[in-house]
Structure formats: C-alpha cells, structure tokens
Amino acid sequence: MSKVKKIVTLKRISEECGVSTTTVSRVLSGQATQYRIKKETEKIVKKMAKKLNYVPNQLARGLRLKRSFSIGLVLPDIANPFFATIAKNISIEAHKLGYSLLLSDSQDDTKIEINSINYMKNRVVDGFIVCPVGQQFDHFLNFFDQGEKMVIVDRYFPDLNCPSIISDNYKGVIEGIDYFIENGHSRIGFIQGELNNSVNDERIQGYKEALNKHNIPLNDSLIIGDSFGERNGYISTKLLLHRSPRVTAIFASSNLISLGALRAISEEGLKIPDDISLISFDDQPYSDLLNPPMTTIIQQKEEIGKLAFKLLMDQINTKEIIKTQVIVMPTKLIKRKSVKRINEY
Amino acid sequence: MSKVKKIVTLKRISEECGVSTTTVSRVLSGQATQYRIKKETEKIVKKMAKKLNYVPNQLARGLRLKRSFSIGLVLPDIANPFFATIAKNISIEAHKLGYSLLLSDSQDDTKIEINSINYMKNRVVDGFIVCPVGQQFDHFLNFFDQGEKMVIVDRYFPDLNCPSIISDNYKGVIEGIDYFIENGHSRIGFIQGELNNSVNDERIQGYKEALNKHNIPLNDSLIIGDSFGERNGYISTKLLLHRSPRVTAIFASSNLISLGALRAISEEGLKIPDDISLISFDDQPYSDLLNPPMTTIIQQKEEIGKLAFKLLMDQINTKEIIKTQVIVMPTKLIKRKSVKRINEY
DNA sequence: TCAATTTGCACAAACGTTTACAAAAAATAA
DNA sequence: TTATTTTTTGTAAACGTTTGTGCAAATTGA
After folding, report:
1. Which DSSP symbol is given to B234?
2. Considering the entire predicted model, what is its pTM?
3. Staple partner for B236: which of A207, B191, B193, B290, CB 3.0–4.6 Å?
4. Which residue in chain A has the smallest CA separation from B5?
5. Which residue is closest, via its CA, to the C1' of C19?
C-alpha cells in the first residue's frame, strides 16, 4: 500500500457541496457575511471543509496575494544562546500572528548569509530579520532599495537606511569597566570581537571612555582579539596573561569569549578573582553557577527578539515608509563574584 | 518616493529576449541542452536573467511542482542548546541541498506543536523533523497516514510507524550509574524528566538495571521529578538533599535539570563533589568550566541533526516506503571532577 | 527536387487560490 | 403585472511556474 498525499482543495469542497469555489473561498476566509452567503450554505461548506480536513494551500494563496505570511531569519550561529534566545522570541511572536519563520544559520559566513537571503527572497517572505555576520552590508543596500522589508539586529550600519536594534554596548561596557576601576583595577585587558563592526566599535569606545573618565592612560596593547568566538577568547586570554606586568582584570566582550577566557585561566592554574578578575558581556543561564559566579553585562535578549518582530510587522503593515529608527536597548551590570577588590593606586 | 517591490518574472525576461517563457524556463532550469535550445539563445537568456537579477518564485514553482524544497522543524525550545545544536546542523545540511527550513518553537506545549505542524503543512513543506514535546502522538498518526514524510528526533513512539533517532539513553545512564557505583556510591538520586515518555522511560530503565547489576536494592523514592526543565532540577535536588540519610550522588537526566541542581546545591551551601556527587545527561560547552568540571553523558547532537535531515531526504526522494527504522546513537561518559570516590560499603 | 529527419522553439494547460465583475433568483414596490 | 431592488452565487482571470505536445524551419538523404 503506497501512501499518496491526497490534497483537499477548494474545488473538491465546492464539488461536494454543489457550490462554486468562490463561495467556498469566501466562507472559509471568513468573508461569508460580507458577501452575503446564506447561513445555510455557510454551514454546509464549513462542515464539509472540516470533514475533509481541509487546509488552504499557502503556496497558491501566497502566489495570488503576493505575500506569504512568512518571514526570514538569518543569524550567524543558532547554537549560540544569544541568538537562540532572540530566535525563540521571534518564533513565539510570529506564531501568535500566524506567521511562519524561515530560519537560516549563516555559520558566520557572509557568503552563506547572502545566499540564504536570496533563497528566502525566492520564497516571497514578507520580510527579513537579519543578525549580520560582519561589517559587510552591500548586499543589504541593493536589497533594501528593492523594497524588501527588513530589520537588522545586533549590528548597526549608519549608511544603511534600515531599522535596527542593538544593545547599549557603549554604556554597557562603561558600566563594567567603571566597576573594575572602582575595585581598584587599572590594568584592564579588553578582548574584542570582530574588527570594524559597529558592535565592537561601540564596546571599544566604551572601554576607552571609561578609562579616560578616570584618568587612566590608554594602553592600546591591552585591547586584543579579532572575533566573538570562543577560540579568540582562549587565545587572547593566554596572551594577556603572559604580559608583564600582568593585567589584573579582563573584560570579555561576548559570552563565547568569556568561555574561552575561563578555559585559558583555568589552564594557567589561575583563580578568579584572586589572580584575575573577569567580566563578560552577555549573561547566560550558567553565569551564576560558575566558580565564582561571573559578573556580567546582561542584554535584553527576549525583548530584542520581540521588538525585532514588531518592527518588521510595522514595516509590512504600512504603506508609508517608516522613519528609520535605531533602537538601543539598555544593558545592566550584574555584580557577582568574579571581580576582586584590590588596592592598587 | 515609495519603494515598490517590482518582481522580475520569466515573462519579463521572455519579452526582453523575444522568446517564450517556456524557453526561458528551460534555459534557467538547466534544461537547455535537453530541449535543444540554441547556444546563442541560451546565452542571451542567461545574460538577461542576470542583468535583471532574476530569482525564481518558489511559490509558483512549488504550486506547479507540488513540492516546495523546504522542510519543517518543530522543537520544544530552541534556546535549549541541545535542540539549538540539532537545529543548527539541520540548517547547515538543508542549506547545502538548497532546502529552506521552517522553524517553530513549540514552547513545550503540544497544542502549539500541533498548530505549528498544521501551519507548515499548509505551506506544503516536503517533510518534517519533529522533536515532540511529550508523550502524545495521535496527531502524528493521522498525519503520517496521509503520506507526510517525517522524522522524529529525541523521542520514540513504538506505535508510530516513523523513522526516529534517539540517543542510547539506556546505556548512557547505565554507564553513569556504573561510574557512581564504582566510586562507592549506592544511595543515588535520579532526577527524571517528563513522565511517561520514551526518553525518560529508557533512562529510568538504565538506572534500575545498573543498580540491579550491582545488587543494590532499588529505592523508588530516590527517583524524583517530572520535567526536563531547570525548575524541576532545582526543586527535586532540594528535596533529595533533605532526605535522611542523604543521597551521596545525584544523576540529572538533562542539561537543564543539572543547571537547577547546581543552583540548589550551591544554595544549600554544599560542595561538589565533597558533599554530593553529580552527573548530568548531555554535555554542554560550559560543563568543563564549572566548579568542579562536571562529569556528563555526551550526546552526539551534531550527528543527530545531520542524520535526521538525511533520513528525511531519504523518505522524500524515494517512491517506495522506507522500512521504519529507529536509530540509536551511542553516548559517552565524560569523566571529570564532579564525582567523589567514597568508601561506603 | 522532394521526402524524411533534425533542430529550435512556442502554445496552452495546470497547480490552488482570490477577487472584480456580473448574473440569476428572490423579494419588494408600483 | 412589471419594474426595481436585494440577496445569493457564479464566471473567469490572474498570480509565476513547468511541461506535454506540436509545429515550423533548417538540414539531410536520395
């Protein structure tokens, strides 16, 4: 017995009920009253639809309506809890409104990012939410001009006229570095992520400003690293720890970087916070379970996800062009036990 | 200036080139040689397509072909690294073959799961990969009989004739409990997940078998809990810790459970492994960074994801019905520092 | 030169919806 | 009775593809 996918269509229902597909369509899309379908007819059609377990074909629907009630989400790494949380909240919101979510993991590769977006464009998604891999944005430019709806998350391109949502990287880092300084630290290593991208730039600015505020001379060699990944965290930490005089504190500018840092510090046989203090950007469920519980800058991931979806819907549901906006989400310093109070001044 | 999404169609290209849409379609779908299109014509068409930046409308294509080159993925919580990793690998494989991935987070709610699947069905996905929420599977039954292609991950329903992939929960737990016993433990608490589901059942069976093997009498009251979530881990651990005599070891049957357990243990002011030993099912990137590094049962998440996709493709690409198979992926015990050697016998 | 073959391409239908337009049937008015 | 209005439903085109079929034009063979 070979299973055959037998689709129930409007036509099928219309035949069973002895009415036209038009009528069926109108009934089933809730336009019965508007088009003055007889109550009797409406009931019959609905009953048959239920009986046959009818589900509308969104492909056909999308083709006709020129919209698909689905959106695309492209992000660098869904296994990174930061992005996963954002994705989760987008999925939840989308589901509420009956939207489907097309997901693509760009694997930190701009080529795949571009590719994914093109695939999705083919699928006539109604809009995009993108967490861009890096600093490249030419592919968005062109794209955006073609009238595609889009929201950029966790990155900001001043030259791109597109609504964006980012955390307050600048203030977030300042708060962290301030806290280091308040605790007597002045030799503070900063492990940065991807070079030349807005997020990284803002965080570095924060670092510099915090030092400046407290009249601590900037030592460029203490800013190190080139990626938001764990490997960079590991390597950069190793390097920082072998500087002499050694840094007394390290600011890890991502959750993955701090993971690598933790590994390196542990390998070097050093103890946090006695031998080295650590603060990480982006709080994680395990942050307070580490030894010692790690001081982190918390980001409003859930809200970022929800907001991104909302911003996209706003674009989709308006005819007029929405004034481009950049939403900056506040961060918060969670003080735990990974920063030691020292007397070095 | 209002942006208008101007779509480039086959028709448009055909007009520009002075040929029929048929020809354009054939050229662009790589059937030029097969249909003996003149090299010259082919070149012109391709050039124009590129010039106009043509992307085929997959909605129209899907409608005509009755397949969409997209698959649906439904899972209980994309923010859980276990599922996120599976999702990532599915996304990667799908992308390689030009498939799109529809994602839905069912939020551990069977109603949403069912709903999501229906949405996706409307979208004519070519198949499904589902990590079911719980023990309910009626909705799959019906569904599967209609000829939908599907793969079940991380759960197994003996009564459902559907290819499935699970970790070797039974052996995995046995290995863990064995290790506890080898280290002198005999009062071992087991924090279980969702009741009455295959994964949980298998893990409990493993627990019982391991004890039995070593002639340790089973104490049912040491099996506790009702969900794979963190909250249950926390509560159950609290309860276990207040038993007297106290358990010397706890087996947490999920990554989230162990997170909760860690929190509870820390709150109680107890030290791992001195006061209590702990093993967790499912390794995480931070597992070895905890204090102490946590002994875990590692699951082949990447392979599970890749395999799930492959299994689905096998179904999609064959006419014959594939013999239902359950693939059991081996697990491995990673011994770290969360189990204490005690002399209690 | 003419038939047979090959080459190159187009026509038209189909996929399952939605919707502008309009028509038939019923009810009401005159 | 006939004209008018209201109620209820239907016809057909369109969305952008793919593809079975068929038909010219060009080429070849005799």
Report:
1. H
2. 0.92
3. B191
4. A147
5. A22
CB within 8 Å: A122 and B6: no
Give A24 or B144, the one with higher predicted confidence: A24
Q: Do A101 and B102 touch (CB under 8 A)?
A: yes
Q: A310: domain CATH number?
A: 3.40.50.2300
> Does residue B215 sit in the same domain as residue B259?
yes
The string of DSSP codes covering A70-125 is EEEEEES-TTSHHHHHHHHHHHHHHHHTT-EEEEEE-TT-HHHHHHHHHHHHHTT-
Q: In this predicted model, what pLDDT tens digit does every residue of B147-160 receive, in sequence order?
A: 889 999 999 998 88
A205 pLDDT above the threshold of 80: yes
User: Does one domain contain both A71 and A129?
Assistant: yes
> What is the spatial distance between Cα A210 and Cα A204, in angstroms, rounded to a whole number?
10
Domain termination site, one of A299, A320, A339 = A299
Host H or E run for residue A27: helix A21-28
Give me the percent of chain B exceeding a pLDDT of 70. Answer: 97
A-B interface: how many C-beta pairs under 8 angstroms? Answer: 172
Is any atom of nucleic acid chain D found less than 7 Å from the CB of residue A9?
no
Contact B259 A285 (CB under 8 A): yes
In a domain, A336, yes or no: no
Q: Report in angstroms the alpha-carbon separations of B158 from A269, B93, B133, B166.
A: 50, 28, 16, 13
Same domain, A266 and A281: yes
Report the number of distinct structural domains present in chain B: 3
Angstrom distance, B22 CA to C11 C1': 9
- B29 nearest nt, CA–C1': D18
Q: Are residues B225 and B294 in the same domain?
A: yes
The pairs formed by A316-321 with CB atoms below 8 angstroms and a separation of 24 or more are A316/A126, A316/A127, A316/A149, A319/B2, A320/B2, A321/B2, A321/B3
- Determine the distance from the C-alpha atom of residue B336 to the mean position of all C-alpha atoms in its chain, rounded to a whole number: 26
Q: Are residues A294 and A177 in the same domain?
A: yes
A166-175 pLDDT, tens digit per residue, is 999 999 999 9
Would residue B152 count as lying in a domain? yes
Q: With a cut of 60, say whether residue A220 has pLDDT above it.
A: yes
- Are both B113 and B195 inside the same structural domain? no
A contacts of B291 (beta carbons < 8 Å): 290-292
User: Given this model, what pLDDT does residue A297 score?
Assistant: 98
Q: Say if A334 falls within a structural domain.
A: no
For residue A209, give how far its alpha carbon lies from the nearest alpha carbon of chain B (Å).
Answer: 32
Residue A15 pLDDT grade (very low, low, confident, very high; cuts 50, 70, 90)? very high
Residues B77 and B52 reside in one and the same domain: no
B77 and B28 in a single domain? The answer is no
Better-scored residue on pLDDT, A62 or B6:
A62
Mean pLDDT confidence for A66-72: 94
**Residue contact A102–B102, C-beta within 8 A:** yes
Geometric angle at alpha carbon A51, from A49 and A57, rounded to 5° = 40
CB of B36 lies under 7 Å from some atom of strand C: yes
Nearest nucleotide by C1' position to the A32 CA atom: D8
Residue A68 CA, nucleotide C21 C1', distance (Å): 26
Which range is least confidently modeled, B61-75, B86-100, B299-313, B315-329? B315-329
* A88 contacts on B by Cβ (under 8 Å): 77-79, 105
Cβ of A41 near strand C (under 7 Å)? The reply is no
CATH number of the domain to which A42 belongs: 1.10.260
What nucleotide is nearest B11 when CA is compared to C1'?
A: D16
> Where in the sequence is the domain holding A188, given as residue range(s)?
169-299
In a domain, B1, yes or no: no
The residue-averaged pLDDT of A210-235 equals 96
pLDDT exceeds cutoff 50 at A120: yes
Compute the distance between CA of residue B99 and CA of residue B88 in angstroms, rounded to an integer. 14
Taking 70 as the threshold, does the pLDDT of residue B320 lie above it? no
